[in-house]
Amino acid sequence: MSDSTAVLRARIDLPTTTGSVPIARHLVTQLLAAWSAKARHEEESMLLLSELVTNVVRHVRPTTTFTIELILSQLRLRVSVLDSSPTPPVVRDRSPAGGHGLWLVTAMADRWGSARHGTGKTGVVRAQPMTPPAAGVRYPGPGPDNPTSGSAWMRCCSSTQGLRRPPQS
Amino acid sequence: MTVEVVEVVLTGELDISTFDNAHQQIEEAEQETPDLLIIDLTELQFVDSTGVRLILAADQRAQHVGRRLALRLGAGPALRVFAALGLTDRFDLLDGEPNGASPRPARD
Prior knowledge:
Largest sheet of chain A: 7 strands, mixed
Order of helices and strands of chain B: EEHEEHEHE
Order of helices and strands of chain A: EHHEEHEEEE
Number of helices of chain A: 3
Largest interface: A-B, 25 and 20 residues
Oligomer: heterodimer
Shape of chain A: globular
Number of strands of chain A: 7
Strand content of chain B: 15-25%
Helix content of chain B: 25-40%
Low-confidence stretches of chain B: 100-108
């Protein structure tokens, strides 16, 4: 599905500080509620978002901002986390000092990765079922690129270029 | 022989923004030099891998001084994170509510 079918968008710029981690979760939770697009597995979604934003605030210069981009189309919610560092996230060995966040993303996400954009990068791709949008919210009609009938997809923290697509039926 | 038990109950949301506060609460409990330190994560509304980092560090300190560490993970967000990382077998896990004692028993 291309972005041209998206009907609801939001971009949230936040300072690269630890305080932005809970704010990001709370904002996205409220946005999903306002869009009547509450994810079926919202807890997992918020956990993944928290890990991605945490990764940004731990490893990117605090003088910058990062951006969360949400695009809700007919059957998918795509959440991208964009930061100013070109260094890709690296899954490293786990130790008491850290390394668990991306392991957690690996364990819980259906898929993930990152892509360069300009001088920075975008974090992690995820796909997950979400509940159908509420009645009364207008969405484009079904298209050939919709996922399996009866299901829907949420994309968490994908990239703004080179997007991976959910499996086609 | 009396076993000195101190239990810390963490509440609210545990992430990188609240790590220092949670770490401080655990360190204060450790300063009471209990034989058994219980960390209760069941009342957390949210916890991410920051919580794992917090507990693994506490476990390292416990091993260093020969103190027993046990966790309450409940069935909510804490269990989700520890289970996803395959860490539930690594710790002594306790069920249910605190064992009749206040979370931070007063010392006489």
